[in-house]
């Protein structure tokens, strides 16, 4: 990871996905309990929203700056937070060992999102759920074409972020079952931020 991705992008993300996204974070984290694995932990902005029923949080985060920015938020929670790795494509967790997985605006940046979702499926206990909010391909053909055009330049600016991934299809292809999914344009435009928000479960 280069200087820009490690030092600059986490700070930009902390601001861009800060206060305006708090309501979304509260919705996505509702219902989490027990042992939770979060991929793309970032600066820990989900921590204040995690329910009291969470007993342990395992964290995957590649950026050192993100982990440093998270320190005050980690200190404020009552459950242990354990950094376990930096690659969502290879989770250092045993099969069927976590109750839930949390992903907020993360699958867009992982190089191989399909592999990351296979790993999520592997580590979830039967009946466990993945709570997610992501952005991806717009249902508007015109907007989707622009997403395809802008994607290479956007990825270089935004830490490898992809504008045009079909999140709901990727989740289902992993073997998870979508229990609910809402889609809507983020910030009033479907071009840079078409949102996918929902819960998927591993068959019991």
Automatic annotation (TrEMBL):
Question: What processes does the entry annotate via GO biological process terms?
Answer: methylation
Q: Does the keyword Disulfide bond apply?
A: no
Q: Its Gene Ontology molecular function terms?
A: S-adenosylmethionine-dependent methyltransferase activity
Keyword set includes Methyltransferase: yes
Q: Which InterPro entries match?
A: Methyltransf_11, SAM-dependent_MTases_sf, Thiol_S-MT
Superkingdom: Bacteria
Domain named Methyltransferase type: residues:
37-131
What keywords appear on the UniProt entry? Answer: Methyltransferase, Transferase
Query: What's the protein called, per UniProt?
Result: Methyltransferase type 11
Species of origin: Pseudofrankia inefficax (strain DSM 45817 / CECT 9037 / DDB 130130 / EuI1c)
């Amino acid at each position: 990871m280069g200087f820009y991705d490690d030092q600059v992008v986490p700070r930009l993300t902390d601001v861009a996905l800060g206060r305006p996204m708090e309501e979304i974070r509260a919705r996505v984290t509702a219902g989490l309990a027990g042992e939770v694995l979060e991929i793309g932990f970032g600066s820990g902005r989900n921590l204040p929203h995690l329910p009291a029923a969470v007993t342990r949080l395992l964290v995957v985060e590649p950026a050192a700056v993100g982990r440093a920015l998270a320190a005050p938020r980690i200190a404020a929670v009552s459950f242990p937070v354990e950094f376990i790795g930096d690659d969502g494509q290879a989770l250092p967790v045993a099969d069927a060992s976590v109750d839930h997985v949390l992903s907020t605006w993360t699958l867009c940046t992982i190089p191989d999102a399909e592999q990351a979702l296979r790993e999520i499926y592997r580590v979830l206990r039967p009946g466990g759920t993945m709570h997610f909010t992501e952005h991806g391909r717009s249902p508007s053909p015109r907007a989707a074409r622009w997403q395809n055009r802008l994607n290479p330049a956007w990825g270089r600016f935004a830490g490898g972020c992809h504008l045009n991934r079909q999140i709901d299809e990727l989740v289902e292809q992993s073997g998870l079952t979508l229990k609910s999914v809402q889609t809507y344009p983020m910030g009033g435009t479907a071009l840079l931020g078409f949102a996918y928000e929902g819960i998927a479960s591993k068959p019991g």
